[in-house]
Structures are given as structure tokens and as C-alpha cells.
Amino acid sequence: MDELELRHAEAHYAEMPRDGYSGRCEMLLPEDLRGMRVLDLGCRNGKGACKLADRVGPDGFVLGVDPSAACVARAEATAAAACAEGAAWAERLAFARGCFEDLRAAGVEDASFDVVIVNSVLNLAWDLEGALREAARALAPDGFLYHAGVFADEPLPTAVMQAFACAGNVFGAARSQAEFARIAVDRAGFSSCSFERERPVEPDGSDAAEELRGRSFTAAIARARR
Questions:
Q1: CB contact set of 35 (below 8 Å; sequence gap of 6+)
Q2: Coil, strand or helix: which one is 174?
Q3: Where are the strands (E) in 98-180, listed by range?
Q4: What average pLDDT is seen over the chain?
Q5: CB 7 within 8 A of CB 35
Q6: What is the pLDDT of residues 95-138, one digit of tens each?
Q7: In this structure, what DSSP letter does residue 153 have?
Q8: Which one of 24, 98, 120, 187 is CB 3.0 to 4.6 Å from 149, fit for a cystine?
Q9: What number of other Cβ atoms are within 10 A of residue 34's Cβ?
Q10: Which domain holds residue 56?
Q11: How does pLDDT run across 69-106, given as a tens digit for each residue?
Q12: Biggest distance spanned by C-alpha atoms of the chain
């Protein structure tokens, strides 16, 4: 990512809601993470990363990354307060600021993680292809991306999707499953992409914009193998 692209990405994330995103926040996780190195993208206030740290156990490690420096600070405070072992939490849990499209800024090296976990926040990426490419770069051989997200049967035009992304609306910014898989496999470096735990879902609350009325959405886990 060049300097101009990075400035555009930073501006995009700076426009997003500071108190958290609307949409799906169920924090669905893979079953067995013990001993693994896990990258949590879009960690926000750190609650999910703390849960992941419990799952990986003393032999694993979790890095939570968020574009917002304020969120990273809150996540560190959350971890310090939530972990019963006190300062020892830092041995297997850390946080860093970085855009999804430039994880090197957060200290993420090539092939350094077993799993990349993202909640529906991946829908809000400034550049989905760039974010997926960075996730693939971070994964060790045979590692996988686990994206619990929302997918649209018929996505909106790109400019409209981008506006919804800036507003933190994961429904309005949703891609179709076919498009997501195509980007992951054909352009981002993953060898396969499948979907599981699919179910219909409807926007509600602040997500229920007029432009989304009558449209169909599916909540699913995208599992993309490196």
C-alpha cells in the first residue's frame, strides 16, 4: 500500500462510529484454538480478544488490531481489568493500531499466525481485496481466515456500499458470498473459501436503512484457507 492509499484508508476508518459498529456482534469462534497464534482484526474494545486469549491458553498468543488508537487503548485497559492473572495477560495478548489493508504497521510479519478472526467488521474495510490480501500474508501455510459476517443476495452499487461502510452499517456494505469467495481465491491469495452456519438475517435498529428494505441477507461464516 502506497502513502496515498494509506491516507485514504486512514480517512475512511476515521469517519466510522467511535462507539462501536452496528450490525452482527455475535463473536462466533472456531472450536479448537488451543496453542494457536490468532490475529483478531477489528478488536474494538478488546472483549473478543480477551475471550480468544482464554481459548488459546498459555501456549497460544492473540494480537488484536484496530484502526482506531482510542480503541486500542480501551482494549488494553479491558484486558488488564479482565484477566485474573494481572500483568501476565500481556504474555499471550497484545494490541496494536493498524488498518486492515496495512497490517505491517501493526507489526504483523509474513506467515506469523495460524488463524485470522474477523467479525462482520470486515464488511467495512476500505479495500476488501487489500484487507484479504493482508490476512493471507499474515497466515502460515494451511492457516485460515474465519470471518463471521453478513452477506447480501444482491449487493448495492459500489459507491452506496462505501457510504454505508463509512457509517458502520455492515448490511449496506455487504458483498455477496460469490463475490467474497472470488476476491479471496482469485485475487487475495487464498486456496479455497467455503461458507458454513448460514442463516437468514434482517437489518434492525440503526442498520435498517430505507435503501435496504426488501433486500435479503445471510449471516454466515466464511472460512478461507491459505
A1: 56, 57, 59, 60
A2: coil
A3: 113-118, 139-152
A4: 90
A5: no
A6: 999 999 999 999 999 999 999 999 889 999 999 999 999 999 99
A7: S
A8: 120
A9: 11
A10: 3-225
A11: 999 999 999 888 876 555 567 788 999 999 999 999 99
A12: 50
Give the DSSP H or E segment for 173.
Answer: none
Dihedral sign, CA of 89, 92, 97, 100?
negative
Residue 214 cell numbers, joined: 426488501
pLDDT(156) > 90: yes
Which residue(s) pair with 63 in the sheet? 39, 94
Rg of the chain on CA atoms, in Å: 16
Helices and strands (H, E) in the chain, number of each type: 6, 7
pLDDT reading at 215 higher than 90: yes
CB of 190 closer than 8 Å to CB of 180 = no
CA distance 69 to 116: 20
